[in-house]
Amino acid sequence: MSSESSSKGPVIIITGTPGTGKTTHAQLLVEESPIPLKHINVGEFVKEKGLYESYDDEWQSYTVDEDRLLDELEPIVSAGGVILDWHTCELFPERWADLVVVLRCDHSKLWDRLEKRGYPLKKIQENNEAEIMEVVLDEARSSYSQEIVVELKSEGTEDLESNVARIVQWINAWRADRETSNVES
C-alpha cells in the first residue's frame, strides 16, 4: 500500500430512513473526528448541482440522475476523508465504502420527527413503514461486506454522542491499521 493511499481519510456512509439523524451525526462527526472529514449531505448536493431529472410535488422529492450524481461524487470520494449522508446507500459502489453506518429509530419517534418537518402524511407513512421493515438496513447488508455495515440506534442525544464516539474509535483503529500496513511494507 502506498503512503498516498494511507494518508487519505476513510469514506463513511451514514444512511437511514429520513428523520433518523444522519445529518446531525455527520456534522458532529466532522467536529469530533481525529482526522479531517468532509460532510456531503447528498440530498442537498443533488439540489445544489442540479443532479436530478424532475421534482415530484406529491412526494416533495427529486428524482435523482444517479449516473450524474456518481460522476460528480467520484473525484471527491477518491480523495478520501468524506462522509456521505443519504437515505439510501445501494447506489454507491462497494469499493467506495470503508464504513456504512445505518441509523435506526423507533417508528413512533420517527413519525413525530417527520411530522415536525412538515412531511405530507403519505410520505410519513411510507418512511415509517420502511423503518419498520428495515429497508435501509437490508439494502446496506445486501450491498456491502457484512464487516463494514454497522446498525446504530438513534433516538436521542445519548445515542448521538455514543454513536459518534464509536465512529471516532473506528476512525482511530482504521488509521492505526493503515500506519501499521505502511511500516510493514
Automatic annotation (TrEMBL):
Gene3D superfamilies: P-loop containing nucleotide triphosphate hydrolases. ATP binds at G19, G21, K22, T23, T24, R117. Its EC number is 2.7.4.3. It catalyses: AMP + ATP = 2 ADP; ATP + H2O = ADP + phosphate + H(+). Keywords: ATP-binding, Cytoplasm, Kinase, Nucleotide-binding, Nucleus, Ribosome biogenesis, rRNA processing, Transferase. It is found in: Cytoplasm; Nucleus. Pfam families: AAA_18. InterPro entries: Adenyl_kinase_AK6, P-loop_NTPase. Residues 116-126 are annotated as: LID. The keyword Ion transport does not apply. Residues 41-64 are annotated as: NMPbind. Belongs to the adenylate kinase family. AK6 subfamily. PANTHER family: ADENYLATE KINASE ISOENZYME 6, POS9-ACTIVATING FACTOR FAP7-RELATED. Interacts with small ribosomal subunit protein uS11. Not a structural component of 43S pre-ribosomes, but transiently interacts with them by binding to uS11. Broad-specificity nucleoside monophosphate (NMP) kinase that catalyzes the reversible transfer of the terminal phosphate group between nucleoside triphosphates and monophosphates. Has also ATPase activity. Involved in the late cytoplasmic maturation steps of the 40S ribosomal particles, specifically 18S rRNA maturation. While NMP activity is not required for ribosome maturation, ATPase activity is. Associates transiently with small ribosomal subunit protein uS11. ATP hydrolysis breaks the interaction with uS11. This is Adenylate kinase isoenzyme 6 homolog. The lineage of its organism: Eukaryota, Fungi, Dikarya, Basidiomycota, Agaricomycotina.
